[in-house]
Amino acid sequence: MKLFNLMQTTFDNFDATINNYLSKSLNKMGISYTDNQLFKIIFNALKGIAQNIMIYIEDAFTEQNVETAIRKKSVYSLAKISGYEPFYGSAATGTIVGTLVSNTNMSREIRKIYVDNYSNIINENTGMNYVIYLNADKFVFDVSKPLFNYDFKVVQGYMFTSNYTAKGTALESIHVLINGMFDKNYIRVYVNGELWTPVLNLYDMTENGKEYIISVGFDNELDITFGNEIYGTILTKGDNIRLEYIVHGGYNGNVNKIAGNSFKFTTFGTDYNGNSINLNDYIKLSINNYISGGTNSDSIEKVKGMIGYNSRSNVLASIDNYLLFFKKFSFLGYFNLWVENNSNVLYVCALSDRAKNNDLLKSTTINYNDFLLTEPQKQNIITVLKESNNSFAGTSIKFVDPIIYKYAIICYIKVDEQYIKETIEHDVKLAIIEYFTKLEYNVKFIAKSDILKTILNKVDNIKSITLEIISDENEKACKNKFYYKYIAKYYNGKVLYNKVRYNYETNLNLGLDNMGNILLENNLCIPVLANNILYYPDKKSQLDGNNTMMLDAINTIFI
Length: 559
Fold this sequence. Notes:
This protein has ten helices and 32 strands. By secondary structure, the chain is an alpha+beta fold. The protein starts with 10 loop residues before the first helix and ends with a strand. Helix 1 runs antiparallel to helix 2 (38-63) and helix 8 packs across helix 9. The radius of gyration is 32 Å and the shape is globular.
């Protein structure tokens, strides 16, 4: 007897069909088919098992597809299979200055003050913890030299330690689950108190070398793998393995030196006689530069976007590989990357995230140097790249300061009278800002049609809209009657950009093409929306320098 068409049934139809069949069959035999009837109980149990099986099958299909997977562990696993190692963020680093304070209560017996490695300090403004990172077990303050300042390297986060006992097997691994974001650059592995060296893979281990492989797992997991004598060393059974790592707060650990931050020790130090002392009674902590480099871990969406676009060998060998690497740094805003003349020098031209966060639109009196990367931020990128050991042999990074091309946009909008113009104006400005903040990297051309499309997709009730893009670079050249171009000159395999002056020609659209779209002349140029743009509304008088006005970043005119 064919109960149902398998190609057309659903689970609910299956349930109803079986129940109807059992009910009719049992009723013919004079047996009542109720919830307490044996056949009903057996069928409900089988149905529950079948439902679970179907759920597991559906879940397996969903989580094995990068487009449909929703669990972090599934996405990270797919990324590992594709060759991309998910990024668990980087800890903010910087320098704290320690100064001895004059203390009338300081005992004459206290001649030296000892600060332990991994001592904790706290930013009283933000509550974030920082670890003092020394190259020795202790740092010594000489009380006889109170006028000296002492610099400490600090890393944001908390230091944790885990201990394990070796089993003494070849290629022995220890598996660690970490609760929070961690930074691979601050992981240390000690065997019987001796610091061992990390390598990228098994074949980088030397025979009987004191080395290990560190691999990031699927979901806040680490695997530490030791050798087999041919590659690396087999641990002896009973060896003590100590793992040290820092759990950090990512982007929240960054500190601006002008923010008036106050720091204090939260751990004690010792004096010359080994007595415990409150370090805050003797040492004042201050900051003289940024603490930067703190970056959050990859989001699920970001990992999905990187699957299939990275080097399967984890070597940064192309511009695309480096683009993925640079996207990890949360303090980066818009940036350009390029290689000149097939050299091994990667040129980087970047703004800080302040520019991406619309700070350029908030004031008419802006120091544009504040939007450039700081030297500590540049050094942080170089250090992370160096310590990753993933860059192609011989490749180096050179940072080049960008030329900021400022633009303003005038929108001419037509709407019906019943709609509130202030609301539409607000939505239009928001759409344009969102378009520019989503620009990622290496953009030289921005079409007006793309901006218009973004506006029309996000703002309702617009009957018609046109826009005009104003280039501040062009308007200044029009006023000054000259402008500069940056010409690339090659010397010993490297490029130098020479600043060359040119006379302004009528109707020369610097930063724009003939159709009024944004067009940048080279990789040094970065487009931004900004206030305080010079504008000549009457083009006939532009060479005379008359009839000028200042524009905000976005201007709306209803027609």
